[in-house]
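Quarterly update from the structural biology core.
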Amino acid sequence: MLATLLVVLQEARTRDVPLAERPVEIVVPVAGDAKHVGTVVSFPEDSVEAIVAGWNEEDLSLERRGDRIFLKLLRRAEGDLHVVGSSGTLYRLYVRPADGAYDGHVRILRPEKKATAGSTAIDLVRAMRRGRATDGAT
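Predicted structure, tokenized:
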């Protein structure tokens, strides 16, 4: 029993993934009668507002709490999962079954801001329209 637990823990990995234009791949273990493990995905948000999934109930178990979602594949299946954060940001995920090592926890990170020489008037107006703060604005 303890040896099985150690093997399961060794297969799980934690990853930090910066948000990008392409979907983030999430590798999830397939659950069985004697194996109930899953994957946690956390977002740089206060909370998750919505999850859009075209999955069958027999394929994927999904829970959300605050800024996290908890995934468990009930059988081998793969596909898209879209998450909308409280800021309105869309996070595109691609869920696939694990063949060995899997994602125990995936932390999605905001992309680093690019350094700019300064904000222009157009940048400030855009930021005001979107309700966002800009660097260097006082």
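The two ends are 60 Å apart (CA to CA).
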